[in-house]
Amino acid sequence: MSGWLGWMIVALDALLVLAVVLRVVATRHPPGSSFAWILVTLALPFAGFLLYLMVGEHSIGRARRARVLAFAERFGGWRLPPPPVPHDSGPHFQVLSTLANQLTALPASGGNRLQLISDTHTVLAQLADDIARAEVGVDLAFYIWNAGGDADHVEAALIATALRGVPCRVLLDAIGAKRYLASEGAARLRAAGVRLEAAMTVRAWQLPFVRGDLRLHRKIALIDGRVGYTGSLNLVDPRYFKQDAGVGEWVDAMARIEGPVLDALAAVFAYDWMLQTGEPPARAVRATGTVAWPGASAQLVPSGPGTERSANLRLIVEAVNQARRQILLTTPYFVPGEALALALQNAALRGVSVRLLVPARNDSRLVQYASRWYFEPLLECGVDILLYRGGLLHTKSISIDGELALFGTVNLDTRSLHLNFELMLLLHDAAFSTALVALQQGYEAQADAVDAGRWRARSLRERMKEGAANLVSPLL
Fold first, then answer.
1. Has residue 431 been placed in a domain?
2. Is 263 a catalytic residue?
3. What is the CATH number of the domain that holds 126?
């Protein structure tokens, strides 16, 4: 009997492996992940099959899929009438804007005013002040809210504003903000009348049918439809956040936005709110107080489940291809995949100055080693790689020729480029681009350049770690 049982277990595992292979072959996956999943299923009997069920595909669940369709049916998706774009926005912006519009249906707009803020204290103080002045409504969507320090000023402003009768809605990722959602701070918000909801909740019984690691990674603040924020900063004070991680304080930047592009920001928040709660917007998905100024051309580019998942990857690759003089990239996590890695190599080979800035120490050792697997071919092609030593550099930005900027929540890694709910601003504005280049140069002053010769001479042990991390990087 034991012999028959053993053969039955082997046969069952073989059937499960075959099922995964057939499913992977029939399903579109990011490059490399198909082979990785087959390898995992072969290497981990039964467990590999269960892993594929839980995180192998991008399913958001039947209920959320129905809400995506309902949103599209009621509002035509988030299609907005295209506001005018100034003719002086330049040919490169026009090319990228056309691509972004085809991918997301959110048009570019002129007449925006943007302020790049790189000091966390200033960001949180300004955000709290804007919330305190709100008269129509406050909408926030963030991945993490961590109590303590300046983040508490945002909480206090929300409570005071809600008690004045101003509608306030807050959407926090169920995993990233798990501690805060169960905290006394969250209870205070709810008691004051703030609508506080957890995003992307998944119960244990749903795991075979809903991918459990899809995250709401966007950072959105919209106040009265007249002021908005997005960028890399979560609702955290770095002096109180992950102090035991051994990587220093998180270093972030945000954009404070005024102008017509806030219509797009309102549409993205409305989509996220309906996707998580099932509640359709009570009015058209437009901001209420947008006023145009002579200023920046801007376009919002969301990506993630229910939309074009790889929209931002496509846009970044095209922006790199458009570059003629200089590309400055800042990202905390760099696992770009072959398409983006080759685009950066090609840019350097055709004479473009390409400078990549990443943290010297990362809070994820696996991602750190997967990232460094890409360094050698980039260095050989002439890409400058700099390791930031002033903390965990968390800003996500790309500057193209000092004229175009890509700025927001998107890391240059598999999760951001293919999986999570993300948000990026495409900008053509001399003042913002100048400020962004200056910010990058300030970061570089606290960074060490990677020497190509020394990197090639690193130990076999380090190469093995990088190679092993690369094998599983499509699954990260």
1. yes
2. no
3. 3.30.870.10
Contact 250, 392 (CB under 8 A): yes
Q: Structurally, how many domains does the chain consist of?
A: 3
> Is residue 138 included in any domain, yes or no?
yes
pLDDT of residue 1: 47
Which of 139, 150, 173, 224 is catalytic? The answer is 224
Q: Of 92, 394, 428, 465, which is the active-site residue?
A: 394
Reported pTM:
0.89
**Are 298 and 306 a contacting pair, CB within 8 Å?**
no
- Selecting among 92, 139, 173, 217, the annotated active-site residue is 217
- Asked if 224 is an active-site residue, the reply is yes
| Residue 330: strand pairing partners | 357, 397
| 176 & 67 share domain | yes
The answer to whether 394 is a known catalytic residue is yes
Of 401, 418, 428, 429, which one is the catalytic site residue? Answer: 401
Calpha distance 80→264 (Å, rounded): 8
CB atoms within 10 A of CB 172: 26
For 137, phi then psi, to 5°, come to 175, 155
Q: Which residue has the tokens 């240059």?
A: 412
Confirm whether 396 is a catalytic residue. yes
217 is known as an active-site residue: yes
Of the candidates 396, 418, 428, 465, the residue annotated as catalytic is 396
Same domain, 143 and 71: yes
Nearest to 60 by CA among 173, 174, 213: 213
Q: How far apart are CA 427 and CA 264, in angstroms?
A: 14
Write the DSSP string, 384-414.
EEEEE-SSEE---EEEETTTEEEEES--BSH
What are the pLDDT digits (tens) for 368-415? 999 999 999 999 999 999 999 999 999 999 999 999 999 999 999 988
Does 259 fall in a domain?
yes
Tokens coding 469:
């991390």
Range of the domain at 268: 62-89+110-296
Q: Render pLDDT for 236-295 as a digit per residue (tens, 0 to 9).
A: 999 999 888 889 999 999 999 999 999 999 999 999 999 888 887 765 445 555 555 667
242 catalytic per annotation: no
